[in-house]
Specification:
12 helices, 30% strand, 516 residues, seven-stranded antiparallel sheet, Thrombin, subunit H, 4 domains, Pdz3 Domain, single chain, alpha+beta
């Protein structure tokens, strides 16, 4: 019976196989690849190294070029004799009840002569203290030349008056500040000594890839030469530190005191300068940011040559291009930098750049974002003629601009604050959930109310904002807005672009329309 059963089972399998092969032939005859063919596609495979790399050779080679940086500053204590520790006490008249109370009940035995003696003693004590520099910061750095030039962070040296460098072998040397740049958080020091210093070089950024092994060497918590390892976790990170954010993210352990230290690739080249960590707890959580080698090399070269960094200046307020804004302007992609307002007497204004222009390229190089534009313009030499490609009224236009020089000025005010305004009646823009009335200065329409459930409210439009233009056409009435919306519908657009201003700034908001 078992033998007979085996024969029956074999027969069933043969019939099943024949049926499958027959189905494959039918599918192939119909011009459709059979399922059996699809299963033969190769999966992604990567040849992994048989042995994990050791970092020992890299660390041994680069460690002598990495230093600890100690920063000191003159601190002056405040005398507190005459006022008994109470602010403003010295300004009270001698017969004031409060002053009498403290003299009698706080046990103050000092008459006016005694107070004068102690004031003089405090002055002499302060003078002695002022001549002594006190430690205020410590960080890391690395030599980039054999004559003692080294790189660190601006925030490490910023408030210092004296600088000391501790070498890998424990030697302590005085250093002088050559230059610093707050915008990129870089600084250059120079040590003196009758010796040649071991130094390292910057890597080429285009060779650094996400997933590459990296080694960070520095001075965390003042412990001296400490080595950690990890990988490049990301590139082009914008962490809100400044207009030129383009950080490399690494997961090597970086802590306080690592600032200014180098991150190396396995060839011993510096791929970045450690400058910031993301840490809710204050300690390492595996997210650290380094200034890319290319940017660091450019800034450091300027600091060595001139002691400061010379940057190009265009003179525009800009914002990102969202998908809605791209749709409202007829752009194929949400890329570029939208000009909200050219600054008065700026290179941009003189060249004819306008609010509503989208900068898409500089000298033919594609601009992806506002940060991209800021970095690209900063790299231009002041006085150079630069071709700015903008998207205006549905087409591209090239405008030649003579780049100016960026001055150290206060940051422009943001539009985060609320603009006060009293509710009042006005004309309704029901489609957008807005009520408007003519602006007091006659330029545009002031928003008097916003429906909290409207698209306008979702996109941050507020009571008190002034609608200056719609789709780059100036408006002074609801009829002007209706006309702009109608034209957008005729062009097949699904959104219209509102230009808004308030007492702080100018910005653009794209609102969807029902047709188009």
């Amino acid at each position: 019976m078992r033998h007979s059963g085996f024969k029956t089972s074999t027969k069933k399998r043969l019939l099943t196989s024949t049926a499958v092969l027959g189905l494959g032939a039918i599918v192939a005859a119909a011009g459709v690849p059979p399922l059996l063919e699809q299963a033969r596609a190769d999966a992604v495979k990567v040849e992994a190294p048989a042995v994990m790399p050791s970092f020992a050779d890299v660390v041994e080679a680069v460690s002598p070029a990495v230093v600890s940086v100690r920063v000191k500053s003159n601190l002056r204590p405040v005398a507190n004799r005459g006022g008994f520790g109470i602010p403003g006490m010295d300004n009270l008249p001698d017969d004031h009840p409060m002053k009498k109370f403290f003299k009698e009940f706080r046990g103050s035995p000092f008459d006016d002569d005694d107070q004068e003696q102690f004031s003089q003693r405090d002055k002499e004590k302060n003078d002695r203290w002022s001549k002594r520099a006190r430690p205020i910061a410590q960080g890391s750095g690395f030599f980039i030349s054999e004559d003692g030039l080294l790189v660190t962070n601006n925030h490490v040296v910023d408030k210092g008056t004296e600088f000391e460098v501790v070498l890998d072998d424990g030697t302590e040397l005085d250093a002088e500040l050559i230059g610093k740049d707050a915008r990129t958080d870089l600084a250059v020091l120079k040590v003196s000594g009758d010796r040649d210093f071991p130094y390292v070089e910057f890597a080429s950024d285009d060779k650094t890839r996400i997933g590459d092994w990296v080694v960070a060497v520095g001075n965390p918590f003042g412990l001296g030469g400490t080595v950690t390892a990890g990988i490049v976790s990301g590139r082009g990170r914008d962490i809100g530190a400044g207009p030129y954010d383009d950080f490399i993210q690494v997961d090597a352990a970086v802590n306080h005191g690592n600032s200014g230290g180098p991150t190396f690739n396995l060839r011993g080249e510096v791929i970045g300068v450690n400058t910031a960590i993301f840490s809710p707890s204050g300690g390492n959580v595996g997210i650290a940011f380094a200034i890319p080698a290319a940017l660091a090399h450019e800034v450091v070269t300027d600091l060595i040559d001139d002691g400061n960094v010379e940057r190009g200046w265009l003179g525009v307020q800009i914002q990102p291009v969202s998908a809605d804004i791209a749709e409202s302007l007829g752009l194929a992609e949400a890329k570029g930098a939208l000009i909200t307002e050219p600054q008065k007497d700026s290179p941009a204004e003189r060249a004819g750049l306008k609010s509503g222009d989208v900068v898409t390229a500089v000298n033919g190089d594609v601009i992806e974002s506002p940060q991209d534009l800021a970095r690209r313009i900063a790299s231009e030499e002041p006085g150079d003629k630069t071709d700015i490609t903008v998207w205006r009224q549905g087409g591209s236009k090239i405008i030649s601009v003579e780049i100016g020089e960026l001055e150290e000025t206060a940051a422009a005010a943001s539009d985060d604050g609320e603009t006060p305004g009293k509710p009042s009646m006005g004309d309704e823009l029901e489609e957008f959930g807005l009520t408007v009335q003519p602006a007091e200065d006659g330029e545009g329409l002031t928003i008097t109310s916003v429906d909290p459930d409207s698209p306008a409210a979702e996109r941050g439009m507020r009571q008190g904002d002034v609608i200056v233009a719609v789709n780059n056409a100036r408006v002074g009435s609801v009829e002007d807005i209706a006309k702009a919306v109608e034209e957008a519908g005729e062009q097949g657009r699904k959104a219209v672009l509102f230009q808004l201003r308030n007492e702080n700034s100018s910005r653009f908001v794209a609102l969807p329309v029902a047709h188009g």
